[in-house]
UniProtKB/TrEMBL annotation:
InterPro entries: Aminotransferase_I/II_large, AspAT/PAT-like, PyrdxlP-dep_Trfase, PyrdxlP-dep_Trfase_major, PyrdxlP-dep_Trfase_small
EC numbers: 2.6.1.1
CDD domains tied to this protein: AAT_like
Reactions the enzyme catalyzes: L-aspartate + 2-oxoglutarate = oxaloacetate + L-glutamate
Official protein name in the record: aspartate transaminase
A Pfam family it matches: Aminotran_1_2
Superkingdom of the source species: Bacteria
Similarity remark: Belongs to the class-I pyridoxal-phosphate-dependent aminotransferase family.
Length: 400
């Protein structure tokens, strides 16, 4: 019998981290590798937020805090929900964790029993199904293809719900597609949920502030106040505030659920880093103008990547509403062969050949539950993106 737990055997390591590791290994061996796999902004944490972290160190804010966050951060989070989403939450309805990932993990650990189903629209962020499995639940992926803009339709949601459904995990704008739900699209989904009172919503609003053109972000409890008592609204400072390494995520929801999540955290990691919490207070309460500046760069890069990838033979790349990802289809490349003789039969073989033959690291679509596609993170310098897309174009043109 294996020394490792049976639970662990059900989950796989994060494929996005695996791609980054492989690219790093090739780079260390001297290869000219461009990594488009990592899901984080290339901008530094803004100076005023860094200063708040330094100040926390200098003023001795370096001890244990309350398990689920300092009062100052909870009140900044309540103010954020009111300001940005029109949602009223009290500090007792708020919890802070070491990143958005831990928030979601705590919620699933706190609520799932064997047999409980969690509806997850695909393409999904790679961690959702594995976190559900780790918590003993059953992920129910609902495929939402390029034909429906990679978005869950009310009909598909209705069909996926069973008496065992406990949660719908909702993510807009989405990792990996950047697709965002309009208010009326979201209302179509919340109308379905109103007919199924046993289903709760876990909304992952991590990319709320990274939206472009005239897209307006909205979140389930705001669109359908009737869902407020069974919605966990999760968010974090990682992406919009360029704070991925600081590890602060947060959520708001019903007091009993928040207390249960606190219990999980109290017996695992305890409080998130005290210094990061003070930096997050400044992030949420301080100036936000840098977000518009960063977004201008993201839009420019998105447009560059979409245009160049659509010119690559066999690729189709929709224009996303937000986040910093594109999710092109490689349907036109399937069945072709690379100059080195590799048959492109899946998006995984495409991504592997692209990395090995051109040095461009992307994440294959099967990791996100919808194929044949790949994910590009365009949170990197324009020149790097131009070079990477040129290599992708050359690679696609070389297939026969
Ligand atoms: C959709 C989504 N949710 C949550 C997270 C986790 O964020 P954090 O780094 O705060 O744990 C990510 C990070 O990639 C993400 O893309």
């Amino acid at each position: 019998m294996s020394f490792l737990s049976a639970t662990l055997s059900r989950v796989k390591p994060s494929p996005t981290i695996a791609v980054s590791n492989k690219a790093a290994e090739m780079r260390a061996a001297g290869a000219d590798v461009i990594g488009l796999g990592a899901g984080e902004p290339d901008f530094d944490t803004p100076a005023h937020i860094r200063a708040a972290g330094i100040n926390a160190i200098e003023t001795g804010k370096t001890r244990y805090t309350a398990v689920d966050g300092i009062a100052e951060l909870k009140s900044a989070i309540c103010a954020k929900f009111k300001r940005d989403n029109g949602l009223d939450y009290t500090p007792a309805q708020v919890t802070v964790s070491s990143g958005g990932k831990q928030v979601l993990y705590n919620a699933l650990m706190a609520t799932l029993n064997p047999g409980d189903e969690v509806v997850i629209p695909a393409p999904y962020w790679v961690s959702y199904p594995d976190m559900v499995l780790l918590a003993g639940g059953t992920p129910v992926a609902v495929e939402c293809g390029i034909d429906v803009g990679f978005k869950l339709t009310p009909e598909a949601l209705e069909a996926a719900i069973t008496p065992k459904t406990k949660w719908l995990i909702f993510n807009s704008p989405s990792n990996p597609t950047g697709a965002g739900y309009t208010r009326s699209e979201l209302k179509g989904l919340t109308d379905v949920l109103m007919r199924h009172p046993h289903v709760w919503v876990m909304t992952d609003d991590m990319y709320e502030h990274l939206v472009y053109d005239d897209f307006t972000f909205c979140t389930p409890a705001e669109v359908e106040p009737g869902l407020y008592p069974r919605t966990l609204t999760t968010n974090g400072v990682s992406k919009a505030y360029c704070m991925t390494g600081w590890r602060i995520g947060y959520a708001a929801g019903p007091v009993e659920l928040i207390a249960a999540m606190r219990k999980v955290q109290s017996q695992s990691t305890s409080n998130p880093c005290s210094i990061s919490q003070w930096a997050a207070v400044e992030a949420l309460n301080g100036p936000h103008d840098f977000i518009a500046e960063n977004n201008a760069a993201f839009v420019r890069r998105r447009d560059l990547v979409v245009e160049m990838l659509n010119k690559a033979e066999g690729l189709t790349c929709p224009v996303p509403d937000g986040a910093f990802y594109v999710y092109p289809s490689i349907a036109g490349c399937i069945g072709k062969t690379t100059p080195k003789g590799t048959l492109i039969d899946t998006d995984e073989t495409f991504a592997t050949a692209l990395l090995e033959e051109t040095g461009v690291a992307v994440v294959f679509g099967a990791a996100f539950g919808v194929s044949p596609n790949f994910r590009v993170s365009y949170a990197t310098a324009d020149d790097t993106l131009r070079e990477a897309c040129t290599r992708i174009q050359t690679f696609c043109a070389s297939l026969s």
